[in-house]
Design the sequence.
């Protein structure tokens, strides 16, 4: 396949960036999207140019490092991560525009690499449970109904990639927080810190400069892990409970 | 913020439904409509003075509009500050359309509301040169009928109703989600259906009287 690329190039955090056009003549439809970028980078290095910086780690869709905005869609046209997207999802001679995840709390470090540590700080603010160290507890001691366990599993699938923020017209991180509070809130272990969790996470969210949710739903459409939109209502419900309790 | 918006928004929905019920009384004839308008003003008497209830109602609504608009602009500016560099390519998705219709649609609604109040409540503007002011007198019914006999007034009101319908379609279910009652896939589907239903009922319910007047079924 022949592919035309328009890629955001930016030398550093404070440099001004711009879209630069490249052309690849021999792309296999079986290549993953990141392999296609690897091919481009090999050619750039051979020509003595700077390769395009982008993040990746597992390349199997489970770590959340690889978010790119492809033709305006975070992770591109499929419900999967960028590393699990393949070139067969595009047509011969397509022009593909690749941009970094855009939100002011996610500053561009270089080219397509952004700093997503605000999500880590939101987790550190409340997205955890406290347990004593030592031997693992006996698994049967705390039964969890199947329904709750399933929902906790589904929402625990969030890989913290930030696609929801990138897709949101308000640049809000509510789907990410909703996934976490639903995951922990469905389980007995999550109860002791539940009421304080949502307040702390939202305060951190606002302090990082994310926008406010207006229930648009672009986040859930972009999420590679199909985190359902209703976790945001669960988040609001938890918040309401906390407010009533005066937290 | 969102909570304020959801609560004031819900109040509008109740108001709009009541208002629609009142308007549909046009079909019951002049007497019913006029006595309804009069009844609004005497509701609560003798505990409250003439128009007392109406004034309390108006104050609550005005405060709600202010709170609603305040939270809207707050969210708007926050969103603007959270993404100062825009995407070069934006997916032509429903998402952008939804936010834009809520925001610009909301602004359009306020403009419409201003005209609407001047038209029927404060200034009682008569736009139909074929009907003399004397015929109208102080009958709200006559004013309404005379107005909607003018085609562009009807078209203008219909356009406003489209805006109301779009606002409600997203607004109603959004309020349910914000109040925390859409926390499961089933509840979300139901509340989205509810949003569509309220939007349809309100737009069609309001549209009937002007249309029937314009086409001469109600005189
Ligand atoms: C002052 C003019 C208005 C402006 C600027 C405005 C703007 C907005 C905005 C930006 C939202 C949030 C959108 C979102 O959640 O995506 C909203 C929500 C809403 N609006 Fe309005 N609006 C106005 C008037 C009205 C009117 C007249 C009604 C009643 C018919 C109404 C009913 C609602 C409802 C029910 C919501 C949902 C609340 C929620 O999101 O939780 N609005 N409005
Ligand atoms: S909710 Fe989905 S889109 Fe958002 S960070 Fe988690 S996996 Fe990524
Ligand atoms: S590189 Fe790990 S999810 Fe894509």
Sequence:
């Amino acid at each position: 396949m022949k592919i035309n690329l328009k890629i955001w190039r930016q030398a550093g955090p404070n440099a001004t960036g711009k879209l630069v056009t490249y052309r690849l003549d021999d792309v296999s439809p079986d290549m993953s999207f990141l392999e296609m970028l690897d091919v481009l980078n090999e050619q750039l290095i051979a020509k003595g140019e700077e390769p395009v910086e982008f993040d990746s780690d597992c390349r199997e869709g489970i770590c959340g490092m690889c978010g790119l905005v492809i033709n305006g869609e975070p992770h591109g046209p499929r419900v999967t991560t960028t590393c699990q997207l393949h070139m067969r999802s595009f047509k011969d001679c397509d022009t593909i525009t690749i941009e970094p995840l855009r939100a002011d709390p996610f500053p561009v470090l270089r080219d397509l690499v952004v700093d997503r540590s605000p999500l880590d700080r939101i987790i550190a603010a409340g997205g955890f449970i406290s347990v004593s160290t030592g031997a693992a507890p006996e698994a049967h001691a705390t039964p969890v109904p199947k329904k709750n366990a399933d929902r906790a599993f589904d929402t625990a699938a969030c890989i913290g990639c930030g696609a929801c923020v990138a897709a949101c017209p308000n640049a809000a991180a509510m789907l990410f927080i909703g996934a976490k509070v639903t995951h922990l809130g469905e389980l007995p272990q999550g109860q002791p810190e539940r009421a304080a969790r949502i307040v702390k996470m939202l305060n951190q969210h606002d302090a990082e400069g994310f926008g406010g949710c207006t229930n648009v739903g672009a986040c859930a459409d972009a999420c590679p892990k199909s985190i359902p939109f209703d976790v945001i209502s669960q988040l609001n419900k938890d918040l309401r409970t906390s407010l009533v309790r005066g937290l | 913020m969102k909570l304020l918006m959801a609560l004031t928004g819900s109040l509008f929905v109740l108001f709009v439904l009541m208002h629609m019920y009142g308007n549909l009384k046009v079909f019951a004839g002049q007497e019913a409509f006029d006595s309804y308008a009069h009844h609004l003003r005497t509701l609560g008497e003798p505990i409250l003075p003439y128009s007392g209830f109406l004034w309390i109602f108006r104050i609550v609504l005005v405060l709600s509009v202010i709170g609603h608009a305040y939270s809207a602009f707050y969210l708007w500016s926050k969103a603007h500050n959270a993404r100062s560099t825009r995407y070069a390519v934006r997916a032509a998705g429903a998402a952008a359309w939804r936010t834009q219709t809520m925001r610009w649609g909301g602004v359009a609604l306020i403009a419409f509301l201003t005209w609407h109040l001047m038209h029927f409540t404060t200034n009682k503007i008569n736009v139909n040169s074929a009907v003399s002011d004397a015929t109208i007198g102080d009958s709200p019914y006559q004013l309404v009928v005379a107005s909607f006999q003018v085609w562009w007034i009807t078209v203008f009101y219909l356009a406003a109703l489209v805006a109301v319908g779009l606002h409600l379609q997203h607004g109603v279910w959004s309020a349910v989600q914000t109040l925390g009652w859409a926390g499961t896939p089933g509840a979300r589907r139901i509340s989205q259906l509810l949003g569509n239903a309220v939007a349809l009922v309100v737009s069609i319910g309001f549209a009937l009287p002007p249309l029937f007047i314009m086409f001469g079924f109600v005189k």
Remarks:
- The mean pLDDT of chain B is 74.
